What we know:
Helices cover 55% and strands 9% of the residues. With 324 residues, the protein is α+β, with helices and mostly antiparallel strands.
Amino acid sequence: MRIKGSFAEILLVWMQQFGYVNQDIRTRVQLLAESDWLTVEEWRELLTISVEMSANPNVGIEIGSSVLVQHAGVLGYLMLNSQSLAEALETYLLCEKHFYDTNFAVLSRSETEWHLSWPDLLGNDNAIFVQVSLSALVTFLRQRFPGSCDLKQIAFSSNKPENTDAYQEFFHCDVIFDSEQPGIIFDSQGIHKHVHGLLPGDYQKMRNHQLHAFDQVIKIDDPFLQRLQHIILSLMPEGQARLPIIANSMNCSTRTLQRKLERYNLSYQLLIDGVREQLAYKYLQGTSLSLAEISLLLGFSDQSAFSRAFKTWTNATPAKVRGI
């Protein structure tokens, strides 16, 4: 298992927020963040140094609460497009590999609760790792879905600390230790509500990129097109923004969707290519996403396919536009 390199930058935000100074961590994080991935061993070592520097047994909660969408890389942006907490959890389950380089979470659902767990993260050896990961995920979801992110229970596989007050204050739910597997149980009441919080700056910047890209192609304020916009932006990252799938999501036939687009002097392919081109420019110039991550967000099978399409649209390469 590996971890997205951008996640290491969470330590720099944490250090700044809590007034910690450590040039060794700063230098190492800056180097690791330039890589697509860091090993679990590298991440554990950085966290161990952070624990020693802080001398706070609950430092993992501090670090996790410092998370920004950019730290989660492409997974964060994929979850950003979710319209409900339930949709975000489904997206996490499908796309976890873009953060951990593997899918190992398990999501079980019932009428009363949804349980997201990680069977392979066991024991005290991973205590700080799990503490940071779960705190960051909860922070992320609370920011996006403040009206529906109600926790019933959170479980850690590490030993129970002498004082659990910090856990209770942060998670506001039943906290379990010495569990067979770490995980979070969400109250399913309201989990499907479309209730969003005020987006933090980095979330809003990404959302503005997406909305502006679509507006540049459409330039029309219309309820039908607004709905189409959401569906395309939701389906595009996993390569599912195909005409039959989009039509089905719009509750109409393929031919009906084509006829409606014709009323706006649009075709499906021109619309998709136009949105992709505009988004490509926004992502290349306004984010630190790698070319591989941008390719994924735009629904291409790989980076080379994205580069070929981009050159067809612009007669330039993505690397040239980014100034690499």
